[in-house]
Amino acid sequence: MTLERTRTALILVDVQQVFLEWEAGGMRRNNPGAVGNIAALLAAFRREGMAVFHVRHASRKAGSAFNPENPGYAPMDEAREAGGEPVIVKHVNSAFIGTDLEAQLRARDIGTLVIAGITTNHCVETTTRMAGNLGFDARLVSDACYTFDRTGFDGRTESAETIHAMTLSNLNGEFATIETTENLLAALNASAAA
């Protein structure tokens, strides 16, 4: 795999404090190393001078933990934006709806999107599906996103691992290529050496 430095961007979806609050409140998640992998990808993209876009969910619902006035809205420390890195504020699941993300990517001639964030089966999935539909080469990083256990429509509890795996399976090939942090970091190192 090769990544064109000027045509590849890292898209970090909703890496926000609210998910730490959920976890502290007893919600169980998968991929315990995901935030560390997000931080590693972010550091590598910054080191190579490549584009980084931060996506933040701002709920318009009263009392939502994602409301910009609540502490849960803030980014996790590991994914805080640096100077010059755009922050895309969205109000629905997809980072492309009601934002200028697509316009910014097109203006910079970016064709490949490396996508990571929280949660796998909600905003990460929706953003990845739309990226593929819009013609971007979407690369979803399997170990740099996570989700939580969830009660299904039939009342059964589905594990975070099952939900995560099914989401990746649904996206793979049709909307995105599923990658790992290790493979992407290796590709970045190879691109830098070339």
Q: What would you note in describing this structure?
A:
By secondary structure, the protein is an alpha/beta fold. The protein has one domain: Isochorismatase-like (Rossmann fold). Helices cover 35% and strands 21% of the residues. It has six helices and eight strands, in the order βααββαβαβββαβα. The protein has helices at residues 18-24, 34-47, 101-107, 120-133, 160-171, 181-193; strands spanning 8-13, 51-57, 87-90, 112-118, 137-146, 150-151, 157-158, 177-179. The strands form two sheets. The chain has a six-stranded parallel sheet with strand order 3-2-1-4-5-8, sandwiched between helices. A two-stranded antiparallel sheet has the order 6-7. Helix 4 (120-133) packs parallel to helix 5. The longest helix is centred in the first third of the chain and has 14 residues, at 34-47. It is globular and about 50 Å long. The protein starts with 7 loop residues before the first strand and ends with a helix.
The total of beta strands comes to 8
CATH architecture: 3-Layer(aba) Sandwich
Q: What is the approximate shape?
A: globular
Question: What portion of residues belong to β-strands?
Answer: 15-25%
Q: CATH homologous superfamily - what is it?
A: Isochorismatase-like
Largest β-sheet summary? 6 strands, parallel
Stretches where pLDDT is under 50 for at least 5 consecutive residues are none
The amount of helix comes to: 25-40%
Output the structural class: alpha/beta
Please give the CATH class: Alpha Beta
How large is the radius of gyration?
A: 16 Å
Q: How far apart are the termini?
A: 13 Å
User: What is the CATH fold-level name?
Assistant: Rossmann fold
| Strand ordering within the main sheet | 3-2-1-4-5-8
Q: What is the string of helix and strand elements?
A: EHHEEHEHEEEHEH
Count of distinct structural domains:
1
Number of helix segments?
Answer: 6
Overall mean pLDDT? 95
Keywords: Hydrolase
InterPro entries: Isochorismatase-like_dom, Isochorismatase-like_hydrls, Isochorismatase-like_sf
GO molecular function, one term: hydrolase activity
Organism: Oricola thermophila
